[in-house]
Amino acid sequence: MNHSAIEQYEQKPHVVNEAVKNLMKDQLLAHPVPGTWSIQEIVIHLVDSDLVFADRMKRVIAEENPTLIGFDEAKWAAAMGYADQSFQNALAMLDLNHKQMARILHKLPEEALQRKGTHNQAGEITLLQLIEGANNHIEHHLKFLREKRKMLGK
Fold it and tell me: Torsion angle, CA of 52/42/21/28, rounded to 10 degrees?
């Protein structure tokens, strides 16, 4: 089994927690870069995206070439009221989702990583690509979290 990608996946909630450690509510909701998401909105987006990634992984594991549907992150952020959600619950959900998925992933045979689904926008995608995509998505947003944190003097 490709333990490297799975181990990275397991560690992502810890990395996110470190990036937002010791921030107060007003700092989480601040918009140091006008027109962009706050730190809280980024974290809630990460959780929503993470749950979508987990659903896609489960479908690829359990079904034969399932259809994987994209989503509009801006519409989700607006419709779900990211600024009003529980930040602590979101961090806990991210952690639990990764623990549960990593447990599933570690038990799969190596060849399962090559199982495929078909994304309605990106085309064919393997389980390994989904895991790596989840990891890369968090890394992408961590840059913005850290930049905003620095702008807030933290």
Answer: -140
Question: In this structure, which amino acid lies at residue 74?
Answer: A
d(CA 39, CA 19): 10
Burial class (CB in 10 A: 0-12, 13-18, 19+), 1: middle
- Dihedral sign for Cα atoms in the order 18, 33, 29, 27: positive
CATH architecture of 3-151: Up-down Bundle (1.20)
Would the pTM of this model clear 0.90, i.e. be above it? Answer: yes
Handedness of CA 149, 37, 11, 137 (dihedral sign): negative
Domain ranges of the chain: 3-151
Cα end-to-end distance, the chain, whole Å: 39
**What are the tens digits of pLDDT across the range 117-145?**
999 999 999 999 999 999 999 999 999 99
| Amino acid in the structure at residue 68 | L
